Amino acid sequence: MQRSPLEKASVISKLFFSWTRPILRKGYRQRLELSDIYQIPSVDSADNLSEKLEREWDRELASKKNPTLINALRRCFFGRFMFYGILLYLGEVTKAVQPLLLGRIIASYDPDNQAERSIALYLAAGLCLLFIVRTLLLHPAIFGLHHIGMQMRIAMFSLIYKKTLKLSSRVLDKISIGQLVSLLSNNLNKFDEGLALAHFVWIAPLQVTLLMGLLWELLQASAFCGLAFLVVLALFQAGLGRMMMKYRDKRAGKINERLVITSEMIENIQSVKAYCWEEAMEKMIENLKQTELKLTRKAAYVRYFNSSAFFFSGFFVVFLSVLPYALLKGIILRKIFTTISFCIVLRMSVTRQFPWAVQTWYDSFAAINKIQDFLQKQEYQTLEYNLTTTDVVMENVTAFWEEGFGELLEKAKQNNNNSDIPNGDSSLFFSNFALLGTPVLRDINFKIEKGQLLAVAGSTGAGKTSLLMMIMGELEPSEGTIRHSGRISFCSQFSWIMPGTIKENIVFGVSYDEYRYRSVVKACQLEEDISKFAEKDNIVLGEGGVTLSGGQRARISLA
Fold this sequence. Notes:
- By secondary structure, this protein is mainly alpha-helical.
- The protein has three domains: 47-375, ABC transporter transmembrane region fold (Up-down Bundle), CATH 1.20.1560; 392-416 and 432-483, no CATH class; 500-558, no CATH class.
- It contains 20 helices and five strands.
- Helix 3 packs across helix 4 (69-107), helix 4 runs antiparallel to helix 6 (120-166) and helix 6 (120-166) runs antiparallel to helix 8.
- The protein is elongated and about 110 Å long.
């Protein structure tokens, strides 16, 4: 792939977007191929963005009792965010000045107004220049804000992905795939979609103040009649917005519920087929889908009604602003056209830009809080390994899958060190209660020496899997100690094959040793399977590759 021209583009090229000309010209002349796409600029690479945000988030975790993700994002992106916001504000200011020049140009057609007529050409040139300046300010600003939103999404996506790999088994059991999908798609997409509107939360009030000052000069107190109508309309739209949010939240809950049920059904499809539950599961999912469609339809009706109120409001704003002044003092053509232009800009600021900006901040803060809660979940605790030992030793180990009341009490104590209840007295309240939940492992003691074979047997729910999770560090012990070298090979009950060749699946990132590789292939009885493939152990598995039988998958997973 070619290097992105954006990396070496000059300021003029970025201002006029001329760096996009080569790819646009090529796409106009012929069909674009994958090789025509540019490489990702280094500033947009997931590695650089995630490393930068992760460093700031770790700094936030280390320096504060109550860390906030918004502070980490602020240190990463706030400077450029405000720079583009200032450009956006300057571009919006030019939009407020244009009606003044338009009014003076219209006044130049009055035969009695020779002063305006003599400078009409200069006024027209100034109006054209304002359009050019506005374009040169707004488009780079909007592009830059969308660019920052994309970078924030990529950085947080990578941060969530890395956090998922560190979560403890206790936490992973409580998180569904649907929740992760919602976190990575619905919540993160808000930054791409809405960041360009975020600045209007402060730009719109300043612009309304400027416009009302200009309208006061034209219409005096009559200007506030139109503003009052816009304020009432904005409050009405806010009510519709809350109604739409209620429907959208309910719809999101139903979507999440449907995804969870669909995922569980696919994971247990054998049981569904065995017990002939297809129709029952289909009906359950269909009912959720119908409820979801009803909520979507209701939200769409509210949104369309809200949009129609905006488009019909333009006439009433101008009418209510001009009518009182015309009845009292009369009005000239110049003031009518200037007032119409001012009211169009004012309507956009009050009924569109400001409500959208408030909604953007609301959605963004809600998404950031959800992501922050996820990033603060309990992580997998790495054991202190002893590389010199060759044994696996457990001494008086007790562990719990669920958080007991005692663990919750300890967390509460850590989060509220300034409690009025002394620590010595707090134990009196709970002296007769078991402060921990039911242990899945209690007082486990054993030692496995090098070369020793040990089989763990027991009934369902006896704790066999929990014991293996404990050895690997997936289950954190509440009491006792575990010692081993840290090099553990684990073959799960279900075979798992990653996309790649057979050799890559067996070596699995470890340095290749020919003798050990051949020994493992022979021990797992893979020689006959590999000999059947034309490309031997270089055959590709997974997506776009060969399909393996259950036995072959199990043997490769074991190897």
